Amino acid sequence: MSTWLPKSASSRRWLGLAPSYIVIGIFMLIPMVIMGVFSFLEPNPYGGVKAVGSFDAYVKLFFEYDLEDQLVFNPGYINIVWRSFQLSIMATVLCLVVGFPVAYYITLQPENKRNFYIYLVTIPFWTNLLIRTFAWIIILGRGGVIELPLQKLGIIDDSLRMMYSDGAIAVGLTYSYLPLMVLPIYASLEKLDFRLLEAASDLYANRWVTMWKVVIPLCKPGVVAGCILVFIPCIGAFIAPNLLGGGKKLMLGSLVQFQFSSARNWPFGAALSMLLLSAVVVSLIFYARAAKKRALMEGEV
Amino acid sequence: MKKTKFGTLGVYTVLYLAFLYVPVLFIPLFSFNDSIYIAFPLKEFTLRHYADMIEREPLINALYNSLKVGIVVSIVSTVFGMLAAKTFTKYRIPGSKSLTAFISIPLVIPLIILGISLLTVLKSVGVTLSLITIGAAHTVICIPFAMFVLISRLEGFDKSMEEAAQDLGESPWMTFWRVTFPLAMPGIIASLLLCFTISFDEFILAFFLGSDEPTLPLYMWSQLRFPAKLPSVLALGSVIFITSFFLVCFAEWVRRRGVQTQTGSAI
């Protein structure tokens, strides 16, 4: 054994964690902290930052200077932020509505079949996001899979203009992240005691009431986890807004990227990233609270 | 207790799977279509887009770059993930929940934030972007996957085997090499394949941290703008799709088989 290694076993056990912690620390945490610092500095016109503290980046989120150098409210950026949230929430709700019945169906299967279904659900997730998103151009595009039959049948004569719209982005996002909703819901449904459902039906609850009053409350942590796992990549999405939104419908992710490339306003880009990050943190807090509640509930039972 | 009926829910699930699979199947469909326009009606069957793809040198270079990054990333993340997984399963560490939570942070940070913050720092420090910077970022996101796959494998087997080896006078290193390592093998292979697939398919981090040496997804992104080149991008996409599909299936198969042998040997 090398002499520089800690002698006692209790300190040596930490060594196994060191490489992972160092990599994640250096390549993720420190850069994110520095980004936080940058958001309070002034931009350098050629990219980069000047070491002068200012809140300009955050002011710019809401206001702009007019011709007389007066601060006036500028809804432009807030609109983009708002749209990102709307689209992400829309995609999350779509995932939940589309994914929940599937997760439920899988739990109803005999145990040996369940893994197979889970497998079927996850496979597309492991292929290139770029390709999966591009497939939707073929479907939604001009003369695409949806439009062409309708045109041939004479139901429509012009293009439906489905591409480059908010709807297209929402569908693309939903499609990209669906498995992330199904898996956690399945995981919590799997632990569900199905005798409770029988009890409910013995007590004359119909299927909808049972679903609403028994199943959904009990698998809430899974639902919350699924929503968060979908919401986080959606709010920072870059590929779907670019390919399906045509770059015209900006989302937060593209706006951040723009500040660091063409606009050369690093502090503003950093401030936007901090906004994005706070959305992530807030949703994680929600999750932690739901998980804690569940733990408490189980503790009481 | 539970009855499986193929009612409305079953029909719905089939529709769901169709929704999941049909869109991606358009990619191979059009890659065999003898036309440069990605639209119906289909023309004749052709393999020329595939021939086109193979002849293109930048594409082959991009493939080579992706392989390099993917292989290094999968090995490094699996080794690091193994060390962490071993620590968590072998010792009772106070606060191990928050310690694992730290390693899973990369799973919940939007990639765009990770990419951009790393980019600004590297630029400020004066590091030139290369495949290495892409690899570093990929390692960050692969470590949690590697660790969780390996923890699930290591948690399963008996500590008494390792103890027996040590009682019989093996050194800790030889115990690891001759007992732990073979037992963890299915987990290790699964982790390697998983990390490789993640790195191989990853676009956003590569987009920000890449240089003039593109990885495969970057190359595809740059080709999407040229309609004439689109069909061969689809051909490439199909090949990647099929390859990823088999890699993931294989990883899962190895992991499963591992679980079976494990329960088998326990009896």
Secondary structure topology:
The complex is a heterodimer of chains A (301) and B (267).
Chain A: H1 9-12, H2 18-38, E1 41-43, E2 49-53, H3 56-62, E3 63-65, E4 71-73, H4 75-108, H5 111-122, H6 129-140, H7 147-152, H8 166-190, H9 195-202, H10 207-218, H11 220-235, H12 239-244, H13 252-260, H14 266-300
Antiparallel strand pairs in A: 1-2, 3-4
Chain B: H1 8-31, H2 48-55, H3 57-90, H4 96-108, H5 111-125, H6 131-156, H7 159-167, H8 172-201, H9 204-209, H10 216-223, H11 230-266
Helix pairs in contact in B: 1-11, 2-11, 3-6, 3-8, 3-10, 4-6, 6-8, 7-8, 8-11
Give a description of the structure.
The complex is a heterodimer of chains A (301) and B (267). Chain A has 301 residues and is mostly helical. Chain A has a single domain, classed as MetI-like fold, CATH 1.10.3720.10. Chain A contains 14 helices and four strands. Chain A has helices spanning 9-12, 18-38, 56-62, 75-108, 111-122, 129-140, 147-152, 166-190, 195-202, 207-218, 220-235, 239-244, 252-260, 266-300, and strands at 41-43, 49-53, 63-65, 71-73. In chain A, helix 2 packs across helix 14 (266-300), helix 3 packs across helix 14 and helix 4 (75-108) packs parallel to helix 8. The longest helix of chain A is centred in the C-terminal third of the chain and has 35 residues, at 266-300. The radius of gyration of chain A is 24 Å and the shape is globular. Chain A starts with 8 loop residues before the first helix and ends with a helix. With 267 residues, chain B is mainly alpha-helical. In chain B, 79% of the residues lie in helices and 0% in strands. In chain B, helix 1 (8-31) crosses helix 11, helix 2 packs across helix 11 and helix 3 crosses helix 10 (216-223). Chain B is globular and about 70 Å long. Chain B has one domain (56-266): MetI-like fold, CATH 1.10.3720.10. The interface between A and B is large, with 80 and 74 residues.
